[in-house]
Design a protein that fits this description.
This protein is α/β, with parallel strands linked by helices. Helices cover 49% and strands 17% of the residues. 35% of the residues are buried. The structure holds 2'-deoxycytidine-5'-monophosphate.
Length: 226
């Protein structure tokens, strides 16, 4: 009797711009799993909070906002799309201003507990690749496979500049922004950015996306057999 392969929970954490989402998306496609970008949830809250003129530190108002927020992450073959009150806000979420807001609201326990609960619901059945900052440490401490993806700040700044078409002259400022966001994400009291003790760390500096995917797929295949 043949048994269906186990559908795993794969957690991918790491700092901004390290290549997490490229890897997570490709991995989900290769495995036939669902890709969930948990950062998009923090970005949706940031976007909605900004639109309503809330303060990024007002935990009570943000909690009430989230409790009434109608948003959905929809996995599609080309990647995840995000809807807020039925409107597709996927592109809007990628702006640096929204990223900044996301990072600020993500420091609040009232925000994190609510979003972590939704992330667990999305992933608990398995067959999911979820990326973020605390997936392997807090959201799914029992995840079958955990990866911590890093790259040097200079490399991440170069990738970000290429992505947004910024000139060479802006590289220094982009790198400083990245380092500031890393600091805020790593130093916050609750669920700071750090590798889980049982995560495999992958430094993508100087590697192609294909090389990274191959390395990770080999590891997942090993775990699926276990
Ligand atoms: O991955 P991203 O850049 O889209 O995430 C936006 C912000 O959300 C980031 O600054 C940190 C926060 N975040 C978090 O605290 N926990 C997660 N699991 C995902 C994102």
């Amino acid at each position: 009797m043949s048994t269906a392969p186990r559908r795993l929970i794969v957690a991918i954490d790491g700092p901004a711009g390290a290549g997490k989402s490229t890897l997570a998306r490709a991995l989900a496609r290769a495995l036939g799993y669902t890709y969930v970008d948990s950062g998009a949830m923090y970005r949706v809250v940031g976007l909605a909070a900004r639109a309503r003129g809330l303060a990024a530190t007002d935990a009570e108002a943000l909690a009430a906002l989230i409790d009434g927020l109608d948003f959905a992450l929809r996995p599609e073959p080309a990647g995840q799309r995000v809807f807020l009150s039925g409107r597709d806000v996927t592109e809007e979420l990628r702006t640096p201003a929204v990223g900044e807001w996301a990072s600020r609201v993500a420091a609040l326990p009232a925000v994190r507990t609510r979003l972590v609960e939704r992330q667990r619901r999305l992933g608990e059945a398995g067959g999911v690749v979820m990326d973020g900052r605390d997936i392997g440490t807090v959201v799914f401490p029992e995840a079958d496979c955990k990866f911590f993806v890093t790259a040097s700040a200079a490399e991440r700044a170069r990738r970000r500049a290429r992505e947004i078409g910024a000139p060479e002259a802006e590289l220094g400022a982009i790198q400083r922004d990245i380092e500031a966001r890393d600091r805020r994400d790593s130093e916050r009291a609750l669920a700071p950015l750090r590798a889980a003790a049982d995560a495999v760390t992958i430094d993508t500096t100087g590697s192609t996306a294909e090389e990274v995917l191959e390395q990770v797929l080999a590891r997942v295949a090993e775990r699926a057999k276990a």
